[in-house]
Amino acid sequence: MQFGIFTVGDVTTDPTTGEAPSEYERIKAMVRIALKAEEVGLDVFATGEHHNPPFVPSSPTTMLGYIAARTSKIILSTSTTLITTNDPVKIAEDFAMLQHLADGRVDLMMGRGNTGPVYPWFGQDIRQGIPLAIENYHLLHRLWREDVVSWSGKFRTPLQEFTSTPRPLDGVPPFVWHGSIRSPEIAEQAAYYGDGFFANHIFWPKEHFQALINLYRERYEHYGHGKADQAIVGLGGQVFLRPKSQDAVREFRPYFDNAPVYGHGPSLEEFTEQTPLTVGSPQEVIDKTLTFREHFGDYQRQLFLMDHAGLPLKTVLEQLDLLGEHVIPVLRKELDSLRPAHVPEAPTHASLSSGVTV
């Protein structure tokens, strides 16, 4: 079981001080958070990709390459790589380069993002979002597995005997997760290739994501990659921790109430009841996270969102200390003990190179 954090890289005003970090401060904070994640024993750090304010991570591989040089163990990933508006050739080459620099500690999550205007900025039509995702990934999949590719499609110029460089490290492409919050077509795509499926599992009730994950599992088995319960599933989640529950609720409430993504809607209490958000003590986070397995089956990766809504860096680092010391060791022990022997662990470069997992 892999545990980690993901960031969307938002620059948000702290509602308790009225101050917002500069882009420079936010970028540096994200790096510090990644280093802290490795320090406290997490397995994964993932960054989003955005090309509009108030977000800063427009170049994930640049950031992850810098973090790779300052870490030695943590897997570096994305919480969205825009398969619809990035050129598949550039994705193939950028992430293969990152693979080499990070000694294989790289995977990525494909997604369409949640910013409609990004499509025309990169010369695409949002109405073609699903066809773009399907065609672009088909090309990317080939570029990593075939030394010479000739290809033609609808959305980019043809390729004639093209070789992307560098080739994937050890001839093993980075493992791909397909992320979705609403599209069964993406669950189908993940199943077709035998890739991982990541349900963001943040803003909506569990029943919505159960339908997507069940579809993915059924189709994974249909395409012959293994039994449905052997499919590679990842989940998101949100937590805010303090040693005492009442302190966590009191401290987080102004951030929740003013957050651009969910403020001014349901109350904090309603949101924690209806979604995976947990605001409380380490034991409360443990208890709620353990219910995810009951809802979705055995899964391989759990990522938490912790550095959002204007929370200051100091608070985020304190959260990571609590997560690493009091939460993850218990979750790791419990979930690993419950996972049947035939259900695979999360793929890594080492396991894929040796053929141990999918």
Automatic annotation (TrEMBL):
Organism this protein belongs to: Amycolatopsis decaplanina DSM 44594
Q: What is the protein name stated in its UniProt record?
A: Oxidoreductase
Q: Which GO terms describe its molecular function?
A: monooxygenase activity; oxidoreductase activity, acting on paired donors, with incorporation or reduction of molecular oxygen
Quote a single Gene Ontology cellular component term: cytosol
Q: Name one Pfam family in it.
A: Bac_luciferase
The protein's UniProt keywords, in alphabetical order, are: Monooxygenase, Oxidoreductase
Gene3D superfamilies hit by this protein: Luciferase-like domain
Segments forming domain Luciferase-like:
1-295
Asked if the record carries the keyword Oxidoreductase, the reply is yes
Q: Please tell me whether the keyword Oxidoreductase is annotated for this protein.
A: yes
| Stored InterPro entries | Bact_Lucif_Oxidored, LLM_FMN-dep_put, Luciferase-like_dom, Luciferase-like_sf
